[in-house]
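Reopening: structure tokens for the S-adenosyl-L-homocysteine complex, inputs below.
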Amino acid sequence: MTKKNKITNCWVCKNNINAFMSFGPMPIANGFLTQEQFKNEYFFEMEVAFCDHCKMFQLVNQPKPEQMFNENYAFFSGTSKLMGLHFKEFANHVINDYLNVVKNPFVVEIGSNDGIMLKHFAQQGIRHLGIEPSANVAKVAMDQGINTIVEFFDKSLAEKIVSEHGQADAYVAANVMCHIPYINSIVEGIKVLLKQDGIIMFEDPYFGNVMQKTTYDQIYDEHTFLFTVHSIQYLFNQFDMEVIDVEPQKSHGGSMRYVIAHKGAKPVQADVYKQLEHERELGLTESATYEKFRVNCEQYRTNLLGLLNDIKSKGKSISGYAATSKSTTIINYCGITTDHLDCIYDTTPIKQGKLSPGAHIPIVDYAKFKDNYPDYALLFGYNHEKEIMAKEQNFIQQGGMWITYVPEVKII
Ligand code: SAH
Ligand code: TYD
Ligand code: ZN
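Re-run output (same inputs, fresh job):
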């Protein structure tokens, strides 16, 4: 069943927007399912738009948050060791550069998941609160003694937190701000929550990288937005807050960390102006660039499907590696089926034994990869390439070959 739930106004500035591209019917990206669930599988038309006024790249329609974030949420942050180190660095950055001068500081994180970042504050005895609506992942954090509430953050929850705990010195988030369609309410909530000299630090996949590398797989149901410094600046300026620093990250194929404060509270670093200039040079503020992006996506689809068909026509086997959310877009947009991939290997227990959203490709425990090496493995987890290559060296030694599609479709 395909549901249309199109908006014609920008989520941020309410300007009229028109979709410049459709990726076709898409299932819930993390909606790994059993055969019995096929008949009720949810699909929506995944269309994207660029708002010429506030410069926000966004989904035009989307499933409801509760359909994606609930007690069956399949993404456990702790599955990546390298991301564990990444979030330790993030937490220490906040502590050393902002909280050390504050007496009895209070940190709030939204989308705290299994506690991958918040535990570093908790371990140092810092007052903290995680807001995490997916009960199963939140439980992992709570079981470690990390203070967590199972709720969706918004303005009214922010008011409740302030009345119970007081205002926060730091608001942190990773890979969640871009997930929230009612983003204005989130920013209004932050304004209520944050002390006058408090700090906001969050990171999300960066549209500049997505555009440059045509990593259109960052577009899926959960990602209402793909941010740029321009769009984030507009979003926060609406509520008298401003971007004071930007820090590019390698995570998730290229992310941006934004440091934000109440207007005038802290100096704006030169890197903000440099990145804004860089974005203008990349054309991220122009509609024509997004049209070019559409053409590039179509070319990538042709190239990947062509390569897979070619390999199959020679009678070779292909498996997927890492059943990422991102792979749902690649598989369903490119038309990859069980005729192409025997299965997808993955480390997440909740995904193993289930079938992939839309194309219904079996998900198999990664430990079985070595028992049955395919001729080719399609690397859906390219953002974890280092970690995966390190543990799967034997595959190459046995004559196996990796296929990637970032930054171009090729065999490595
Ligand atoms: N921060 C982690 C998890 C990112 S996944 C990391 O970077 O690895 C996004 C998480 O945000 C999910 O766990 C989801 O349940 C949560 N989430 C979604 N909407 C939210 C909201 N409105 N408030 C708080 N958390 C939310
Ligand atoms: P990630 O890119 O973090 O997630 P998403 O696209 O969903 O945001 O990928 C997480 C998935 O990759 C998860 O299902 C586990 C899998 N994975 C492996 O199978 N092996 C690995 O070594 C790593 C790091 C991840
Ligand atoms: Zn707008």
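Confidence is low (pLDDT under 50) at residues 1-5. The chain has 13 helices and 18 strands. Marking as resolved unless the reporter disagrees.
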